[in-house]
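Predict structure. Chain length: 686.
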Amino acid sequence: MKVLLCGHRSFAARGLIAALRRAGHDVVAFSRGPVGQCLEDFPDAPAVPVVTGPIEAMLENPHLAAGPFDTVANYILLKDDGVEKNLAFIAALLRFCREQAGRPVQHLVHISSISSYKASLRLVDESAEIETVPERKGNYGSLKVATDQYLLQHVPADMKLTLIRPGFVLGAGLVNPIVGTAARLPWNKLIVIGNGKSIIPMTTREVVNEAVARVVSNPPTDNREVLVLADPGSPTRSQFLDVCCRELGIGTGVTSLPTPLWWLMAVGGEAFARLIGQGKLQPYSKLTARLARQRFDSARSSQRLGMSLKVDWCGALRDSLEKQNHEMGCPQAPESDGPIPAQGSLRLTEPVTFIGFGRIVRQKYLPGLKKLGFCGQIRAFDLNPAEATAEANDVRVEPISGAMVPASGLVVIASPGPAHTEAIELLRNLPGVLLVEKPLCYAKSELRDWSAFAATRPDPIYVCHNYRFKQNVRRMMSHLARFNPGRLHHAELQFQSPPAANDSVPWLRDERGARTLLMDYAIHFLDIACLFGPGRPGTADETAHWKIGDLRHELTSSGQTELIEGRVQGHYSVHFLLRQGFGPRRARVRFCFQNYSVSLGFFPDTFVACMADDNPWVHKAEAAESRRATLRKIIDKLRNRDSDDSHVRLLAGVAARSKAVEGLTVGRLAPFYEALFGIGELVYGH
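Prediction complete.
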């Protein structure tokens, strides 16, 4: 058949041309625009004749005189115009169908909507009564009601008319899935507009396209037919919005008001509208239309079309919006957010050896092992064994030497960063797991040495990037796993440190020599900002690298690095500003995803997600989070305890060789360190 498709650029009509062509039909597309004709290529439908012109003058358009058309499928709805202009178009369409060159159109297929039915109905099917008063519906529904009424009254008796009434159509390019269904609340929740238990009939664009193609190929035997396209397993409003939260990251949950309260607001709104002379708005009818608990039965339509109307609406919903199915992945497994093994439940049965026995070992590693129930042998080696032994309580510290043969098991390299690489020769033939304090090394040549060393070992080498296991980072990862953030576009890091000249570690005071600002102070936060970057196995960027751009730095009058600012670019960009000197200590990392943004604060540690519009509530929530975190730190100081369990969790993961620490191997961290050294070479020189 020769088919004229009116409104081929509309959201619901995408892909229909290809479906009609697959069914063997000859298709001409028509849409609004200046009078003209051309050939356009569509997916799976090349060289399609496309005619444009004023829609109210279709009959006079010379490019539509190539008919006669057997079937006209109409998708045009003038959403930004009123009922009057829409009826004028329908009148012009019918005139074209009656008077086109050759003979009248035999079959008119009009895309209507389920919203044309009366809101008071409990059961909606093909024979249900439609609304007759457009003003009782919202803007979209009122146009559908008016055009349906006009068609039923004015279509010639000998012309076949098919009214297709789909439910909520899902498909790529959907602009707003919650419009008219819910509103965003400032505290990252959604509030249902109307009755949360009412059904939202769902379908997909593919189902609608297939239904239209089948109707065109097999016109009805009667001159009038109605088809309802709705999944028999369609969700309630609350269920739909719950899935929107999980799959689209629209909010963290759904709240609803009691139905009687909505009725009360409807009555109040109607009274107020009449009081100010705006009774024609009919707020009562429009609001109560969302309160009925309707069922939708499309069994007869399914039988007529010979196809199932059931759809995977959850998957279709996610696919409808752009950049939802991303390859960001999770750099650490969800188990990293689980409980720490109880005292005595995890025992490192093999010895633990420390090479380097400085402050970090005494403050973090030994207490961490104790929390994990470790009671085995500890061996320790240090460049200054006498000094280390004096502070080591019951641990005997031996000198580091070339003849040293540490016991097998877990070996922790906790020497000062610049000396890490020297340990490679000591550990060349030693089996077991290695855990290296950050930074792993200070130069690209040293990174190559570590990569080559790791490639020869059957057991993994981990680097202690413990900030990935901080509570606020774990909360962020848990949030991202629960509520789809979409693709990551940008991260921003602002870091301000007290002056390196005040550091208690003597070798770090020489900021230029030790590269203190970049390699010691800021490395934690740069690592977090680059958390989702190149190097993750199984993704498209597995072999990708960070690129450095827009880098600048400033020195103090004494020749120390005061500021480093720049950008690294992977499949997302990271802008960073690092400072050391007079000023408050501050660190904040903000990630901007497709669906929402999240903010991590440190000193104290906080996490806040912003899923609603930017509003004072979000800022108050962040301030409250900061106050709570500060209070916890004060209580910890007063009780002489350390609530930061990041080292404990990392040690637990290393001991179990769990997925939680897979991202901390030398190979996985190599792209990050390459970027770090690239920045260092530009700021500090080779």
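Summary: The longest helix spans residues 616-639.
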